[in-house]
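Technical note accompanying the year-one report. For the benefit of new consortium partners, we illustrate the data format agreed upon in the data management plan: each record pairs a sequence with a structure-token string. No post-processing was applied to the example shown here.
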Amino acid sequence: MEEKNNLDLITRRIIGAGIEVHRHLGPGLLESAYQTCLAFELRQLGRKVEEQKPLPVMYKDVKLDCGYRLDLVIDDAVVVEIKAVERLMPIHDAQLLSYLRLSKKRVGLLINFHVQMLKDGLKRIVNEFPDSAISAYSAVKKISHG
């Protein structure tokens, strides 16, 4: 229960920082700008932030560097995938879920900054069943505030 509460707290802080960045920048910039500003905002809040963290792929007990990078990892616990696209698609959910499974993390946030209201561009993905992509995929949900 404590881990769940901690993950909820971290995700709330990330969402709050994302709203702050979106309020100042609005939609229309590149993902890299939002990533840099969100990382800055989270560091100001005292969070541990890793940017563009390499993510190797394990294939048949061999670690392969395929060039995957996690946009942000917050407090060694939450993966944040940043987008600046017209709309989020199921492939974005699948991408983040794969990143969660490969990194052995439980929670990820998909944040699309190319929206008028950031709440419309947020998804929280929970990897509750690391060995089952189908079961974990069902844990995708859109975040709504209010």
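Partners are asked to follow this layout when depositing records. The chain is about 40% helix and 25% strand.
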